[in-house]
User: Fold this.
Amino acid sequence: MKTFKLALFIAFAVLIKHWVFQPIMITSDSMSNTLQRGDYTLLNQWQKPFLGNTIQVKKNQVLAFHYPLDKGAIKDKIVYIKRCVGLPGDSLIVKNGKIEKNGILKLKFDYIVNDPNHLISKDLLKKTNLDLEAKKLNNLWLLSLDEKQIKMLADIAPSLKPKKISQHKNEFDPSIFPSDTLRKWNRDFFGPVYIPKSGDQIRLDKNQISLYKKIIETYENHTLEVKGSYVLIDGEATETYTFNQNYYFFMGDNRHQSQDSRHWGFVPENHLIATCNRVLFNIDNPSTKRIFKSIE
Assistant:
């Protein structure tokens, strides 16, 4: 009887994992403070397409998805967790690392803090829940901070004045999508960019090619050539293109410590996995504040 009960419990646990909730551990700081390194978060498995469901994505939701630039079958690609900041059909602009009317208040950015009097220590960072991954060179600290943490530093010592590390408008960064000198974009100033929606049609010219080439060739399986002033898709000249599926734009809340859609572009709908609503616990932090914490 005990063996039967154990087998039944294991079977139930497996069903829960594969059909209801799947735990996944956070291994980076890209979504800090919303998600912290060591958090086990729950994926809502019932949203997966094999159950006949589709994910009804809302702006600013936190989702798991397969990294689109990874090689191989979609189901075998690396899993990322980020915040969806752009939906199909949206036009998006990033200014100073923020998206207008986005509503996300707990964003983090990188700052340099000059500390000649050695007021900051690792113990202080831990006690004040500041960045445990902080780096120090001589008297300078590199910290990822949100507005609340900046105020905490000011309360500790008014002389500590964090200086934000920002790229300038029209500063070209080749590591930023689509790495096109016609678009002088960087991690802090990006766009405007149109996020494709299934059935929408765009005018296809040389200025648009760098933005949507990956979609047309890789995600929607067409050939694309540019011959002189002509654009050829599947060998035929065309001036327009109609998208076959929806696409999304994702960013990490820790803006300067996140590799996201600013670096590799759009996420196809067939790469989405599920939304993330709860942190189960944090394996490195025994605080009850992380136990079954809601993800907002």
User: Anything to note?
Assistant: Residues 109-164 form a domain with the Alpha-Beta Plaits fold (CATH 3.30.70). The mean pLDDT is 87.
